[in-house]
């Protein structure tokens, strides 16, 4: 369970996220204090529009926080230069990649960019890491196929393999299970759980699959209207956090099964 | 956007004059309005059998028919591929008061002699001066181009108004000086400044001297101006003199044994433009008894040839005439290093009229050259056969230094 | 990596083809030149050239080299722009380079009469057109970059470049309206593009600037490949997006700008050659694409020039007409065959 000596990979202090325009500041969420430890699978859940994407974008430095700080490996994220940051944190995003004309191998190899020389040549070590990533995500057989030939599920695995090849302490995935059927949703999340254990990397993902997240994650970050809570799934259930997630008219949270059921 | 202007200009440049006569084209189209002088009496036009065509030997673009009370000036080919002829009546003021003409019978009724004239090309000015009527010139578009000293003096004394440059003819100023006639030239019959001038009842005549096919035909248009000023006899005499001098020089040149090879023109980028064998320039070279290397070519407009072809044929040509607008050998070299490989360049036998200009930069050849082909021919003869015409100094062509 | 063997064969064949076409280009022209004269021209002193030798050495050879530089340079520049903007319709001139060059040249040729004596003296200088074109394209580029540094979205830069293109075109129209026939003719002929107009000393300067552009291009290879994933991923992989953008823009501008300055605006090559290369090599990896585009661009330009020379006839066609006439159908045919756009 909780190992007090576990290394904290990511920590936020009084983080406040949102948007600024010339006229006003829009606060999406504040007082965010979360910790992610090494080797954990952490799910980020919440209703639509609650700010999951904003939080992820803030954590991944795509947009700036309104206030507060983020620390990666005990160092403020702002003190990292882009190259060092790339060696600590990698992403898997939703949305199409620009060039589907790449082969699977070429795409995964791009994950090694922070480590290669100025022209992008791969060393032997790089090739080993790439091959490992392919093995771990079970896509060895697809190595030479072009990405536009793959199904959504296969493509998702390729993107995860790429993030693995980047060999970072933290991997952040934005809704990795949209577009996938139920089987593949479970497959991907199970894969993430296995990877977290095997590689000792911290994996943070946002998702709408609350029941799967509850079953598979070591830790959950739940965003509600008022507050951002994090903790182990069982604890959060006990606290009744999930009951306040959604309006109660249509669905209700069933503690026993750890899932939402439609009201009759 | 720009491509339309580009296309039009290319047609303009290629189909009209070749290199020697590259003019500044100003498009004016001034429509003729009819003199509807309605009197009670209707005096009919005169029958054909009392008319007599005046003698025009070379020019094909105009004819003058002399009648009792008025003359008829017909312009036949004011621009290449013109589809209609223009007929004008030349009549004195008193006769005009007594005569009615049917609408649409003529393109204009012109009261002669002209007292105030606007011309639009420098080629029109020598005729006025030779006939001693240059004082009737009241306006000209692009006065900087005028090189003749006499007219320049009038321009400087503000007796000749500036009517605009390039595309924009200033109709307001033109109307304010009340000319009796505007001598225009059309390139393709399309125009600007239409409506205002149409309404002002100013007759416009097209001068097609630049369309003519031979040097003497172009010079013969002095008779066109003669008719406008009731000075037909004088024009006849002047032209006769030019013709005689021209033919005398031509005969003189035929007696020589030496027939030097001649190259003309210059390049834009790597395309060489030179006159084709049927052009006036080529005819002058032929009449001067030279071997212009492309004298066998035919067609209208300049030849545009690849550098290789010209170099291959004319590298060893003895003389080089009219390399575009370059004014010195240094400028020529800067234009393209390839020019220096020609023998004519190496031997400094390059001749151009670009350095003979008026005070404001107008090239004299473009102005006077059309009216005085005898001088042009003599220039060429003197340059090509230095042993002839011992006392003659070339007027237009000077060697490039 | 993948199938490097087959790439080696394709590359060797292409290089051979390029050399053969170079040789053919030198031997085709309006004037028939024997092979004997051709070879002897390489061994004669310049001042002793016979007419055919002069044509080969002083006219066709510089022209062929120009064709190689222009074709390869425009192809590379186009590839850079297509990757940077992730837009298959981008070409080397989307940043307003031709517009800037046209404006500079228009000012020198047509604005000279407005500026009076000083300008005519400047015009006498054989470098005036080149300098004007370079300055013009550099200035427009600078303005586009300054404006786009205030903008985050790369797509906006594309639009800004196009807008500046319209502005410069408008200014050129005004200049054209007030200029004389000779000036207009000169400007129009510059716009036709011309490969055969360069002397050896001009070619030297051209080659030097071209080489600098190439150096910048090579420096950008890694970033270009990273950009294939999109800007967000690129950033997460440690790519300094702003710096990379600047390197790519400098590389593309040096190449396209110097080509436009020396040879005039040449259409279509920058847009088509990267597509043809992608289709032929079936890859998006810039380590392969860049050299491939280099060779293929040179090949296509040599072919176009040989056609434009209308061998054995006295006439020549403007190069721009040929590049479009030859290039467009080829791209259409390839796309129809492969039935989808590789990008």
Q: Could you give a quick summary of the protein structure above?
A:
The complex is a heterotrimer of chains A (264), B (401) and C (343). Chain B is of the alpha/beta class and 401 residues long.
Tell me what the structure shows:
The complex is a heterotrimer of chains A (about 260), B (about 400) and C (about 350). Chain A is of the alpha/beta class. Chain A has a domain at about 95-165. Chain A has 8 helices and 13 strands. A 6-stranded mixed sheet of chain A has the order 7-8-9-4-10-11, with helices on both faces. In chain A, helix 3 (about 105-110) runs parallel beside helix 5 (about 150-165). Chain B is α/β, with parallel strands linked by helices and about 400 residues long. Chain B has 2 domains: about 15-230, Rossmann fold; about 255-400, Rossmann fold (3-Layer(aba) Sandwich). In chain B, strand 7, helix 4 and strand 8 (about 160) form a beta-alpha-beta unit. The two termini of chain B are about 40 Å apart. Chain C has a single domain, classed as ABC transporter involved in vitamin B12 uptake, BtuC (Orthogonal Bundle). Chain C contains 16 helices and no strands. Chain C has helices spanning about 5-25, 35-40, 50-85, 95-110, 110-115, 115-125, 130-150, 155-175, 180-190, 200-220, 220-225, 230-235, 240-265, 270-280, 285-310, 320-340. Chain C is globular, with a radius of gyration of 21 Å. The model of chain C has no long low-confidence stretch (mean pLDDT about 85).
